[in-house]
Design brief:
By secondary structure, the chain is mostly helical. It is 62% helix and 8% strand.
C-alpha cells in the first residue's frame, strides 16, 4: 500500500481554471467569445469567486482579456501564437538545461523536485 500517493485537494479556482483552459485550447470557446462570470459559475456549479479567480489566472496566461463589468473575452490560440509559444519554450528549456549542467549540484536538486512531483 505504500505505493499509493496521497490525494491532494486543489483549490476550486485551479479546477475551474483548468476546465476553462481546456475549453479554450480545444476550441469550445472561440476567439472573441465573451464569457460571463455568472453564467460560468452556474454552468460549473460553483460560486462566482473561484470563477473570478480562475479568469484572472487565465488572463495572466494570455488566454482571456478581462474587461471590468463586461466579463472576459477569449483570446484563444491560433497557429502563430502556438508557434511562438513553443519557440519561446524551446529557448527557455534549453537555457535551463544548460544552467543545470553547469552546476552538478543542480542536477541532484532537480532530480529531487522531479521525484517529489511524481508523488
Amino acid at each position: 500500500m505504500s505505493s499509493l500517493a496521497k490525494i491532494k485537494k486543489q483549490p476550486a479556482r485551479d479546477i475551474v481554471a483548468s476546465r476553462l483552459r481546456e475549453n479554450i485550447i480545444s476550441g469550445v470557446f472561440k476567439n472573441g467569445q465573451q464569457l460571463q462570470l455568472k453564467q460560468l459559475a452556474e454552468s460549473l456549479g460553483v460560486s462566482p469567486t473561484p470563477v473570478r479567480e480562475a479568469l484572472q489566472i487565465l488572463e495572466r496566461e494570455n488566454l482571456v482579456r478581462l474587461t471590468p463589468n463586461k466579463g472576459a473575452e477569449v483570446l484563444g490560440f491560433d497557429e502563430q501564437r502556438l508557434r511562438e509559444h513553443y519557440e519561446l519554450r524551446e529557448i527557455l528549456e534549453s537555457m535551463a538545461a544548460r544552467k543545470i549542467c553547469e552546476n552538478p549540484e543542480g542536477i541532484a536538486a532537480l532530480k529531487s523536485v522531479y521525484e517529489e512531483a511524481k508523488k
